[in-house]
Each structure stands twice: as C-alpha cells, then as structure tokens.
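User: Okay, second chain of the day. Same drill as before: sequence in, structure tokens out.
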Amino acid sequence: MYKKLTKILKRFFSDAQIYKYGFNWSPMYRRSTGKVIEVSDDLHYVKVKIPISFKNRNYVGSIFGGSLFSATDPIYMIQLLNILGEDYVVWDKAAVINYKRPAREDVFAEFIFSKEEIEKIKKNVADNNEIDILKKLNIISKSGAVISELEKTIYVANKTFYKEKRKQKLKNK
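Assistant: Same drill. Structure tokens below.
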C-alpha cells in the first residue's frame, strides 16, 4: 500500500517531502511518538525528534524505552531503500539498543549515509550479491546528553540475486 501511494505522490512532491510526511502521517509510526523533523533532498540525512509527552512517559517519568526504539527502528531501512532504488532488496536484520540514562526531555536521532558509504554499499553488493551493513547512532537529549546507543544490522542484496535465492529455498523445501 505505501509503495503504491508513494508512486502516485512522486508526481506532486519531492522524495524528501514524501519521506517526511509519509512517516509523520503513518499510523504505525505515529504510535511510536517519534516525528521526522528534517530530511535532506537526497535522503542521506534524516533527523527524528521524540518529544516527551503523556503518550510515552513511563512509570518513573522518563520516555519509555520502547518509544525510543520504535521511533528509530524503521528509519535506516526505508532511507536506504529509497536511496538505492528498485534494483535492491533491503531488510532490517537485527537491532541492539543500549540505554545510557533516562530521557527526561525531548530527544533526537540523526540518520546519516554519506555518498561514499552508498557507493561502497553498491560496489559490495555488485561484488558479493548480498551484504550486511552495521549502522550506529546515538539518541541525544535536547541538552546534548547521550540517552541511548543504537546499532542496526541491515541486509542489502541485488534484487535479481535475492529472488533467485528465494526460489532455490522454496524448491529445497
């Protein structure tokens, strides 16, 4: 559904606008309490704000860890899917979040892919058909304190290779 809607919206809006407002209007993402506040035109930079509110405040008054995780969980995968395009398959494979201190104020996370990093991903996929990449980021409070550290493992594959690999797995069952 989201993919079809995106194709229609591309006639009227930039990729960055679709990315930002698509997340912010999506019911699944809204429940995380996160809000995409900035997206670069090339989608290589995304900034998310997780404001503290009655919707995500836990028993001791800080932001619930599940909100911190769910607001950051889908960003890298969707970001990379949009940057790489239709010839690639991208899946979240694993995630680890280490909580450093309670979030008692609004927090922020910045998701960044450099142009060199994207070229390296494309080259590695061209050479190996599939790869895992590890991305790390910090969730930071408004005052600059590190609230938590996030590590995401993302699977990237050549779409043709991935489809063939899936066929082989189904044949062998």
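Residues 14 and 26 are 17 Å apart (CA to CA).

User: Thanks, on to the next one.
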